[in-house]
Amino acid sequence: MLCKPGLSHCRPIHVQGKQQLEARAQTDPGAFHTSLDQLEQLGQQHRVELPCLTSAMVHKVLDQARSSVSSAQLESHLSFTKEFGRDG
């Protein structure tokens, strides 16, 4: 999440006595608009704290994920690959 240049909002947090920045939604209390580029220009990129991900979070996302291709499109691709090979 934080590796993307699209980081848009952070909020200050305290980690081991240091004030760090945590990526947050713009609607979260205390969140302010910024980007990794802006933080780098200010010499503050080292303050970005990577969010903790739990397996429950990953499973929730996987449960909500929807296919981006139809079964027919997948079958067509598999058939093409079987007939012509991976590189066509």
Describe this structure in words.
By secondary structure, this protein is α+β, with helices and mostly antiparallel strands. It has one domain (9-84). The protein has helices at 36-41, 55-64, 71-84, and strands spanning 9-15, 18-23, 32-33, 48-49. The protein has a four-stranded mixed sheet, with no helix packed on it. 5% of the residues are buried.
Show the helix and strand layout.
Layout: E1 9-15, E2 18-23, E3 32-33, H1 36-41, E4 48-49, H2 55-64, H3 71-84
Parallel strand pairs: 2-4
Antiparallel strand pairs: 1-2, 1-3
Strand content: 15-25%
Number of helices: 3
Q: Which regions are unreliable across 5 or more consecutive residues at pLDDT < 50?
A: 1-5
Q: Helix-strand pattern, N to C?
A: EEEHEHH
In short:
Helices cover 34% and strands 19% of the residues. By secondary structure, it is of the alpha+beta class.
Q: Which keywords apply here?
A:
4 strands; 88 residues; four-stranded mixed sheet; 3 helices; elongated; alpha+beta
